[in-house]
Amino acid sequence: MRTYEDEEMEEDNDRLTSSFVYASHWKSDLNFYKHELNFLTTLINKYFIYLIGENDLPSLPKLVARLEETKKVHKELSKDITDYMSKIKLLMTNELSLENFYQRKEHIMLETSFNIFTKALRSLKRHIFAITEEVMQHKKMKRLVQA
How many independent structural domains does the chain possess? Predict the structure, then answer.
């Protein structure tokens, strides 16, 4: 016969499993975003020489600083999610007491941080691609004038 405690324990395990799956998806997305950040860094470094002489691109140092800050946030968020997943594993194996761990609150905080990071990264990518397109157009015009 199932007791109330058995049902409560099963609900806790279901919630923990669900939280772990969400965190796994976030971690996977962050791994992909890491490659995107590396690509954006390479993109800026590749065209940096062309941007140095441009008078109409004074925002480039701010853009590079923004990219570096995004990379820092990515690293911190990745660590936080990894730590969170470790805690969930401990909870699932009963090595950590559920009463001593505010899992739901931490889950919501990480989800919010992940969503903010994703929006910031998308905005940064749009900005970098717009500048890169501008540089490419400038290079193309330069070649046409020289021809």
Answer: 1
